Amino acid sequence: MKKQAISMNVVRRLPKYLRCISELLEEKIFRISSKQLGELTGFTSSQIRQDFNHFGGFGKQGYGYDVQALYGEICEILAIKKRRNAIIIGAGNLGQAIANYSGFREYFLDIKAIFDIDENIIGKPCCDLVIKDQQYIDSTIDEENISIAIICTPKEVASEIAQKLMNCPSIHGIWNFAPVDIKGNDKVFVENVSLVDSLYVLSFMMKQKRNK
Amino acid sequence: MKKQAISMNVVRRLPKYLRCISELLEEKIFRISSKQLGELTGFTSSQIRQDFNHFGGFGKQGYGYDVQALYGEICEILAIKKRRNAIIIGAGNLGQAIANYSGFREYFLDIKAIFDIDENIIGKPCCDLVIKDQQYIDSTIDEENISIAIICTPKEVASEIAQKLMNCPSIHGIWNFAPVDIKGNDKVFVENVSLVDSLYVLSFMMKQKRNK
DNA sequence: TAGATTGTTAATCGATTAACAATC
DNA sequence: TAGATTGTTAATCGATTAACAATC
Q1: Which of A205, B21, B50, B193 could form an S-S bond across to B189 if both were Cys, CB 3.0 to 4.6 Å?
Q2: With a threshold of 0.70, does the pTM exceed it?
Q3: β-pairing verdict for A125-126 and A129-130
Q4: Rounded mean pLDDT of A132-139?
Q5: Å between CA of B34 and C1' of C2
Q6: Termini Cα distance of chain B
Q7: pLDDT score of A1 more than 50
Q8: Which protein residue lies nearest to nucleotide D15, measured between its Cα and the C1' atom?
Q9: A96: nearest Cα among A115, A118, A119, A123
């Protein structure tokens, strides 16, 4: 029997649980029920129990959940304890901002290189890196054991670059910030983050509100 | 009879339709069926027809959809023809990147000011703006008729700032990049974009793939 | 007219919620 | 033991897909 794939709805709730639990830990709260967690996150207690049970129950009947254990379990599920090497393609504003955002380093991401095609910026410093020529992408991926590629190029070239990246053996994830939806394959998962889409949704929802 | 609210699933598909249709226009394709649109977007033709009919049918039986008309309709639905004034709170890397990302200006967003609390950067230039002291947020919102606030602060202060912003009469939307889920109210819609959540999802999904 | 494709209703599927026996 | 809360099954709800009459 093939194990049931976890639905995207469940997957996208996991980081929210993790954030909430991590705040509880900071407040030195070591025990929590699905009901309380529901009040904190806005999900129903039923849904929370269902979600957790996709990964095997880690609560105790009559007691609730041990916050520290839960934290460990969810970190394990999200696989965020293991560090990953990444590169950024496109050293425009967004690419440079991501390179500079040290926050990611605090999580599990080590950004090893940033690339661009524009000769005017190749060689310039960016954070603790130097912007490299795109022709060295493949060799850098091999040498530095890169598993994640972050696409910050204009949309016109994003798909083509993504296809090339997917052929690199060590690449298993693409984080795409260009406003094109790139499809993954058996080997590579693609997380599409379209800020423009998000802005459009904001615009639509604002229209629905009172007075505007 | 109160009209049925549009589900978030539908709303989040609208920008994808718009992007696809806009590419068709660039290619000078002026007629499209739901079936063809389905092949381009990855949605079923049935779903596309259902989605469009939430807003009144804009197709012709036996013909399909007029691409130009469709483009206009979806722009109208998303309310992106009207320009909006925005401010950015937090002039760290992400805040500055958004200020610099001229792409948004090409859409409908005019960024009128960027604020920070750090005296060391207040007064410094950022794009065509100068970083302002956060104490002037309220007065700027009034003077410049700001309807969107973009939060790029650390998570510790994001919720508190959001609450204050929601009390400003002209603010109807908050685009929140801090990793905290902020709840909107009757007047203000909050679009939460947590890049950390997105990164966690990428990590989880990579684990599921072959070889990694 | 005949063919194509919509708009819309009905059927199916999946996700969320409710309920409750198991048990800490 | 009694109370609390889980894990899990069943019921409900909503979203997607299929089907087809309407009609361009």
Answers
A1: A205
A2: yes
A3: antiparallel
A4: 98
A5: 21
A6: 53
A7: no
A8: B9
A9: A115
